[in-house]
Amino acid sequence: MKENFFVYLILNIKNRKTMSYVGWTNNLRKRLQLHNSGKGAKFTRGRKWILIYKKKLKSKKSAMQFEYNLKKNRKIRKQLIEKFISTTIDC
């Protein structure tokens, strides 16, 4: 069985301040549960997160490369966040 990997962007909005986190995993549901239970990355502890973007990739290497690029490119992250916020407000 071929394993899939995901790069994801999660968002926390509190007191009008937006915080985001980018990561990669092979089990997206479990990883989000870890972030929300305080057992994920140190930065994400103590906050509630929502998944706003995910991309499915076929190898760990490609997932790690895409994660690195997304973490470094704040412009793209900002666009993804704005797109998510605008679509949720329109609903």
What structural class is derived from the secondary structure elements? alpha+beta
Give me the number of helical elements: 3
**CATH A-level architecture:** 3-Layer(aba) Sandwich
Largest sheet: 3 strands, antiparallel
- CATH topology name, in short, is GIY-YIG endonuclease
Q: Kindly report the average pLDDT value.
A: 91
Q: Poorly predicted ranges (pLDDT <50, ≥5 residues)?
A: none
- Strand adjacency order, main sheet: 2-1-3
Shape: globular
Q: Helicity level, as a percent range? A: 40-55%
Strand content: 25-35%
Whole-Å distance between the termini? 38 Å
CATH C-level category:
Alpha Beta
Overall domain count: 1
Give me the strand/helix succession. EEHEHH
Question: What is the rounded Rg?
Answer: 13 Å
Count of β-strands: 3
What do you see in this structure?
The chain is α+β, with helices and mostly antiparallel strands and 91 residues long. The chain has a single domain (5-90), classed as GIY-YIG endonuclease, CATH 3.40.1440. It is 43% helix and 30% strand. The protein has three helices and three strands; from the N terminus they run ββαβαα. The protein has helices spanning 28-36, 60-72, 74-90, and strands at 5-14, 17-25, 50-57. Strands 2-1-3 form a three-stranded antiparallel β-sheet. The termini are far apart. The model has no long low-confidence stretch (mean pLDDT 91).
